[in-house]
Design a protein that fits this description.
Blueprint: E1 2-12, E2 18-26, E3 29-39, E4 44-45, E5 50-51, H1 58-78, H2 84-99, H3 110-123, H4 131-152, H5 164-177, H6 182-201, H7 227-234, H8 241-254, H9 260-265, E6 271-273, E7 279-284, E8 291-295, H10 298-306, H11 322-335, H12 344-356, H13 363-370, H14 375-378, H15 386-399
Antiparallel strand pairs: 1-2, 2-3, 4-5, 6-7, 7-8
Helix pairs in contact: 1-2, 3-4, 3-6, 5-6, 8-10, 8-11, 8-12
C-alpha cells in the first residue's frame, strides 16, 4: 500500500489554511481521505511529506502525520486478505474513528455501519458474495429501519445504545409484527450480530448485546426426490427443446449435487481428466469459496457428451434464469406424476440423500463432494430413509 499526503488548495478554512489530504493506493484502487489537519501551503514539504521544521507547531503536526501513517499501515496488515476496494473502505471508516476523537467516537450508528457492509458486499459480488446475499442484507436493512422508526422514532441508532433488550424487542417485532418463523428471525439477527461484531473490530467501544443471547435454528426437513421419482425424470420424454434442456440439466444436477448458480457458470475449463481417464468437475462454490471435486457418474457424463458442441462459448449448458428453470421443473414434474413442489435446489438435497448417503457413501465423502464447510452442514441430509429402516429390521429378522 502507498501512503501519500497532498494539500487541497481549493479547500480553505477561515484562517486561509488548506486541508491536508491522505491518499491511499492499493493495487489499482485509490481513495482520498480528508484529514483534520489544515495548514498554510507554503509550510508543506511534499518531498519529505512533512511540515517544514522551521514553522510553528510543526513538531505537533508532523507527529500526527506519523501516527496516521502508522495507523493506516497497521490496519492494512490486519485486512490484507480482503479485496483491495474493501480494504480501502474499511481503512477510511476506521481512520475517521481514529481522528474524530480518541476518547469517544460520536458516530457509528447501526444502519450506517450496515450500509458499509452492504457496500462491501456489492463490490464482491461474484467473488466472496452472491446477489442473493446482497438482497438478504438489503432486506434486513429495510426491516431494521422500519423497526428503529417505530420503536425509537428515529432513522438510526447509536451502537452504544444497543443492549439485550434491543435484541429481544427486534425478535418480538419480527415474530409478532412481521409473522416471521424462528429460522427467518435468526437469519435477520445474524446480520445484526455481524454488524455489531464489525463495530467492535473497528475499535468502537461498545457492549455486545448478543453476549447473553443464543441464536436458535429449528431443524428443517429438506425435501428430496426418492429413487422412484428420480427414475420418473429419467424416463421422461420431452416434446420441446426447452423441456429437453430442463430434463437433462435436472438429471445433471441430481447426479452431481451442483447448485443452480454453479451450473449456470459451469464451463469446459471446470472439466478435468485423471490418470484413469475419469472425468471430474473441479470448481469453487460461489457461496462459500470452497472447492468441489466431483467424479462424474455415467448419467451426467452422457449428458455432458450430448452438450459438448452445443455452445459456441465456454459455457456448457443453455440454462435459463432460475425463475424460468424452476417453472419448467414444475411443469415437468407434474407431467411425470411427482406430487411434491420441486425446485432446482431440491436436486442438491436429492444428491446428498438419495444418490449418495442412501447408497452407503460416507458423510465425510459427501461433505467433500458437495463443497460443504463442515460435516455439520452435511448432517442435515443424513436422514434415515424408510428403505434403510426396512433393511435394518430384515437384518435383525434374519438373525433369529
Amino acid at each position: 500500500m502507498k501512503v501519500f499526503f497532498w494539500v487541497h488548495l481549493q479547500r480553505i478554512n477561515n484562517e486561509g489554511k488548506c486541508n491536508l489530504i491522505l491518499r491511499l493506493t492499493l493495487e489499482k484502487e485509490v481513495t482520498n481521505i480528508s484529514t483534520p489537519i489544515f495548514l498554510f501551503p507554503q509550510t508543506w514539504d511534499p518531498k519529505n511529506q512533512r511540515i517544514s521544521p522551521y514553522h510553528v507547531n510543526s513538531a505537533e503536526v508532523n507527529q500526527k502525520i506519523e501516527e496516521y501513517i502508522s495507523f493506516v499501515l497497521g490496519k492494512y496488515h490486519e485486512l490484507i486478505d480482503l479485496d483491495p476496494k474493501v480494504v480501502l473502505d474499511r481503512i477510511r471508516l476506521q481512520i475517521k474513528f481514529f481522528w474524530k476523537g480518541r476518547a469517544r467516537l460520536k458516530g457509528f450508528n447501526l444502519i450506517e455501519l450496515l450500509d458499509c457492509q452492504i457496500a462491501d458486499i456489492q463490490k464482491l459480488i461474484g467473488k466472496s458474495y452472491t446477489k442473493s446475499t446482497l438482497k438478504k442484507y438489503q432486506g434486513t436493512r429495510k426491516i431494521l429501519l422500519d423497526f428503529v422508526n417505530s420503536q425509537y422514532a428515529t432513522n438510526d441508532i447509536d451502537l452504544q445504545e444497543l443492549n439485550l433488550a434491543f435484541v429481544k424487542q427486534f425478535e418480538l417485532y419480527l415474530r409478532l409484527k412481521r409473522g416471521n418463523d424462528t429460522n427467518s428471525i435468526t437469519k435477520r439477527l445474524q446480520h445484526v450480530k455481524k454488524i455489531i461484531t464489525l463495530g467492535i473490530q473497528l475499535g468502537y467501544n461498545i457492549r455486545n448485546p448478543f453476549e447473553y443471547y443464543k441464536l436458535k435454528f429449528k431443524p428443517s426437513d429438506r425435501g428430496y426426490l426418492t429413487e422412484d421419482e428420480v427414475k420418473r425424470i429419467l424416463n421422461y420424454e420431452p416434446t420441446t427443446e426447452a423441456m429437453v434442456h430442463t430434463r437433462d440439466i435436472s438429471l445433471f444436477m441430481i447426479f452431481t449435487g451442483i447448485p443452480y448458480i454453479e451450473i449456470f457458470h459451469l464451463s469446459k475449463s471446470n472439466l478435468t481428466v485423471d490418470v484413469n481417464k475419469k472425468v471430474w468437475i473441479v470448481m469453487k462454490r460461489i457461496k462459500t469459496g470452497i472447492q468441489m471435486q466431483i467424479p462424474l457418474l455415467p448419467i451426467p457424463l452422457e449428458i455432458l457428451e450430448r452438450y459438448a458442441n452445443h455452445s459456441k462459448t465456454d459455457k456448457i449448458f443453455p440454462i435459463p434464469s432460475n425463475q424460468v428453470f424452476n417453472k419448467n421443473i414444475k411443469r415437468m414434474t407434474a407431467i411425470v406424476g411427482i406430487k411434491k413442489s420441486v425446485s432446482s435446489h431440491m436436486y442438491r438435497h436429492t444428491f446428498g440423500t438419495t444418490i449418495t448417503l442412501a447408497n452407503g457413501i460416507g458423510i465425510e465423502v459427501v461433505s467433500k463432494l458437495m463443497g460443504h464447510s463442515s460435516i455439520k452442514v452435511t448432517g442435515v441430509y443424513a436422514r434415515i430413509l424408510p428403505k434403510a429402516l426396512s433393511d435394518a429390521m430384515e437384518g435383525i429378522q434374519n438373525r433369529f
